Amino acid sequence: MLRLPPFQYHRPSQVEEAVELLDRYPGDAMPVAGGTDLIPNMKHRLFTPGHLVALKGISHLHGIRVQGEELTIGACASLTSVAQSREVRTHFPALAEAAGQVAGPQLRNAGTLGGNLCLDTRCTYYNQTEFWRRALGYCLKKDGTVCHVTRVGRKCVAAHSADTPPVLMTLGAQVELVGPSGSRVLPVREFFVADGVWNSRREPDEIVTRVRVPLQPKAFHGSEASGEVSTRVRTGYAKLRQRGAIDFPLLTVAVAVALAPDGTVTWVRGVVTGLGARPRELTGWEEIAVGEPLTPEVVEALAERAGQQCRPLENMIQDPGWRGAMVPVYVRRALGKAVKQGGGGSL
Amino acid sequence: MSGHKSKSDCAIVGSRLRKVDGRAKATGQARFTDDLTFPGMLHGKILRSPHPHARIVSVDTTAAEAMEGVWAVVTGREMPVPYGVIPWTPDETPLCVDRVRYIGDGVAAVAAVDEDTALEALNRIEVEYEELPAYLDPQEALAATGDENSPFIHPPRKEGWNGNITKKVHLDFGDVDGLMESSHVVVEGEYFFQGSTHAPMEPHCAIGLWESDGREAGGLSTAGGWTFPEKPGMGGEPGKHEGNAPSVRGKLTVWSSTQVPHYVHRELSRVLGLDPARVRVVQPPVGGAFGGKSEPFDLEFCVAALSMKTGRPVKILYTREELFYSHRGRHPFHMTYRTGASADGRLRSVDARIVLDGGAYASFGLVTTYYSGQLLTAPYHMPAYRFDSVRSYTNKPACGPKRGHGSVQPRFAFEVQLDKVAEALEMDPVELRRVNFMGENTRTVNELRVTSNGFLECLDAVEEASGWRERWRRLPLGRGLGVAGSCYISGTNYPVYPNEMPQSAVQIQIDRSGRVAVFSGASEIGQGVDSMVAYVAAEELGVPLDYVRVYAGDTDFTPVDLGAYSSRVTFMLGNACLDAARSLRRRVQDAVAEFWACRPRHVMLAGGWALYAPDTERKLPIREAFQLAEAAGGTLGATGWYNTPKDIHGEYRGGTIGASPAYSFTAHVAEVDVDVDTGFVTVVKIWIAHDCGRALNPVLVEGQMEGSAYMGAAEALMEEQIFKSDGQGREGLHNAPSLLDYKLPTSLDTPELESLIVESLDPEGPYGAKEAGEGPLHPSIPAIANAIHDAVGIRMDSLPFSPPRVWRAIQEAGGPGALSKPPAPTRPKQEEVAHATTRR
Fold it and tell me: For residue B268, what are the CA distances in angstroms to B257, B365, B607?
């Protein structure tokens, strides 16, 4: 069995205490919730913090509830609880589905929504043991100077591989962070940056405390001002992976679409991830679809538009050409789920 | 058939029973090797090569040895005696002496107070390497000329030979070219079988304990003074003790997660220069093996050597990553087949060329090279057959035996070939297989003796259960059925090292309490062998099953069995146990007959009683019957043994390889669903019919059938033991040495499996039993390939049928829109032909 490096384990019961601990050991402390990402990474010597600050004992970080015009999910809510939550399933079935497709049941019981947001990027040249990486000569992301994927680039292209963020992005969700200088709120779509080494705006001494999803996604997309009460928002999620469980996504597509009573699209969002360091918001969709009914031709045009924007790299062992070709297929599937969805949030 | 008891005459055999160790394993009570600890036990770790091919210039262990908590370091140069599980190809040493041959090859080992200290010590061992060009492609390795700058992977076996060749086999039976030329149809195809590893749940683990008798160096000192031999010790060829009786005194015990305690025993003794009578190998319960624990591994030698150096028990447990490096899994095969048939579908000629990608060491490779051709000649009659196989060394982890050793790969190619022949002749592929059935009590073209043969019943069973006649070629596009057949050995007539001694043996001792102790040399690796011997002993001696204790897997108190491989155990150990149990039963019958003044044959032992057969109201508790026998003839004990027929094989070089006392037969029908947009193949269901001779416990037979079909489906759809290329960061680095990246089906990916047991009652098997552990894997892969063809009309001739590969094949065929079902045969069924050829 792989050995963990030694560390001191702290169990604060308050957010402030956790932040204080992270602040006390700069560069040598990391927060841990379910540990399903961090612990294997530590066994691989990708991280060797001297201090782990456990977040699960902080009651403030738990709970899923509707508060006013938004659904709030504590960062330490387990992925199982997100997948099974009545509120989540009612309002955002795609979020429940995405959470329910992470890994397997035991890992979802341990893993949390906050952890899924902060999941480290993944790459075939990175998620390996110390022995393997030494034989490789290490890589740009950790201990080395070369990216073996691009061979020339100075930028890490390890893939964002989390299931729930793309759905949260389509829904205009926000993430709350608390650090030594106080708390701040960021839209999830601005939480990620295109750097595989550290792909979020979270500072190492900050912790994610809550995720807030507006019940009316429109409010966060100023482009449509109408806001008729009869507009229906539907969400869809499609994940490409080789097995029916366990695997990280090779590609995921999250879509959210609002339809007017006559069936025409009033707004639409799509996010693709599993390819590069940051989830990609698909562009040009509104021009194609707004004002149109979701006919097969419109769906095909959206799928094609998505396909043009995605160029998978060999950061995973599976054939990148195939992964690229699957983008339009999975866009079609995600949109198909959204359209079929009976229980979509009604606005 | 022979005089086997009928089903109704058996009390236990044939019943649906639990495994005797099932509860302990299911509830966590079983203690595997890593569960064992000893006072003062040290932990060992092995330093592994980061280079695919390099000379070792120097190894400096000073800094590691100076660390606090480090007790000893051992290097390859201290154990230079080469070994190999096949005595003709001893090409490896416990740790590398002067050359590393793959990324992961062992170089040195450390024993320390705990694992973390041992790992830190590995970092402090300085190894200077001189890198050499690596051979990753077998074709390139075979074409190499080998020079000082780019030496062969091993020294050539003879001057002027290519040192990258382990073995070449060319065998020719009948007029291959003539019959091919006169065939009505000749199908030619190229196939590639990707390598796969065993992935048992339990990683390899070993503990060594050296108990000195105080008369030699070693003991509680790391100061050296210990010298391991440079020549093999006494454990070499039996009867060939070369007079150099080792001076080493003491006793070595090694606990190991192995499926071959006997071979581990032999090689430990040879390599470490110990008198084999002073070596004990214990095999605790094993958490899966599948062929991946069927030869000695570096850790067994290292724990022994480190314990001899320190006088303390030393444990080494592999990481999951190390399993992918130690490997010995299924060889990648590059295969070309030509198959000629007459217009009525009868095979005329088969011609095969095979390149085996062997990895860095020979392992069982000599046998694999023979098996690649020898085991293809049943269940179909083949008038002419030729195969030309060559095994190449490459700078990758060594390949070896995995469930269905050496014959799963050619079976894939050949059964797809048969599908193509049937298509060319517009025949139903089930019918094609039926007309080619070889019959029972016959010889194959390469002179293997085939006795019982239930292949036709297997074919009938899967055809019927799958609704083949109504559904094949008639399911909608994307859905398909495929069929395939196979045969496999029930052990080999000739053991791995030549000897005339029994292949398997037990010792049974009966207590006056009624308790029956069976001392079994065989290896329980989850397949149910301990249960099997308990059933046989209980059946013969008339005791309740829980009166039987099976003591197994310890070379100090069980007779030799050669190991749990080549599907030999039920046949051989079952017969050995019958032998011992029946001799004891006779003693009990005689004693009771004397007491009752009746004929011994009228005394029945069953269900905890001795019964008078003509009037079963007259009976004695079995305990009292045993006491009568013990009083009459002394302590009740007996040995029993089995040896294979040695006079039945072809009279040609290699003719003994593939010879088995009995062959099992299997047929599968697989149903698949192909997602034409993504390339995902879902195996919906596999119908598995298997002729196991007789099911001693149908539950265990079904378990083997299901497990085999699952494993085959996994190899068909997902598994790839592959390596990075030069352009991928590091040549020869394993692509996916973890259970996250190396894909094995989860329960959600596992097809529905329906087992259909066929019982042909083999004349020589125990109660008629033959093997069930490996045969049922073979047809899964070609049946799935053939089903994909039925579903979407494309041929998948390379493994695995993973989504990207299937998607690319669909693209090459013109994309999803261009796909169509293959046409259904227009010819009438070959019923008459089938009847004419059925010799049953």
Answer: 15, 21, 44
